Amino acid sequence: MSAVALQSARQVTTKYGERFVVNVRLEDGTEQAIWAPTDLAEVGTICQGQTFLVGRNRNGNLNFIDAPTAAEAPVHRSIGFQAKPIPAAVPNLGKAAL
To answer: Is the overall model pTM greater than 0.90, yes or no?
Structure first.
């Protein structure tokens, strides 16, 4: 499901160590906090108003899934080979062109 960050991600110290926390609004209008380990660098870059994907684990807690790439930075994937351009068809003019 989609979530919108109400504030930018912040790093906090808990009894479990350093963690990221982001307050979000979900698609159903509810607000909740997402906690993530600091080794998920993508979570630390979330800014206020940014939309990203979250999921619920079996305990009902939200987990960060993925942040969509910016619209101005399209994703380019290599398909492993370079396609050669197809030559333009040469019209058959017959003997009259000779």
So the answer is: no
